Amino acid sequence: MDIETFARISATLMEGTSAEEALARHGIPAERWEAERARLTRALAEEAMQSQATPLGDAFAEALARARDELAPVPEMTAEQWASLVAAMATDGAPQALKARGLTDSDYLRLSRSWTRTLASDRSVATRYAQAFARATRKQ
Fold first, then answer.
1. Would you kindly state where each structural domain of the chain is located, as residue ranges?
2. Torsion sign (Cα): 45, 47, 50, 52
3. In the chain, is it the N or the C terminus that has fewer CB atoms within a 10 Å radius of its CB?
4. Residues 80-117: tens digit of each pLDDT
């Protein structure tokens, strides 16, 4: 099994799909999945422990992020709402802050990837975010 397939199945499972359904969706028998999951998990662990460079781990991380983003859209959120969420997570904890906004852990991961890209590439949005974050943290 290639790393892309492994990542797609892993992402499907992380989103809450049952193993039976996820494997059927990808046409993978359970026995093969268990063997491949053990093999790839071992390879990822060995790579991480033996070297500075982690090409397999990097490929998996990128493929997993892509696969998770393909499964569900990034929730709509303004820079001000993102700043408010980040501030609330710092003070109230992630579970409470996410629940108050009707978001899941998976939503947060998608939002985090999206906002990291946006804030790095759009100076005006980054400024709005910084100002909103400062306001949000002063309130708390």
1. 3-71, 79-139
2. negative
3. C
4. 999 999 999 999 999 999 999 999 998 999 999 999 99
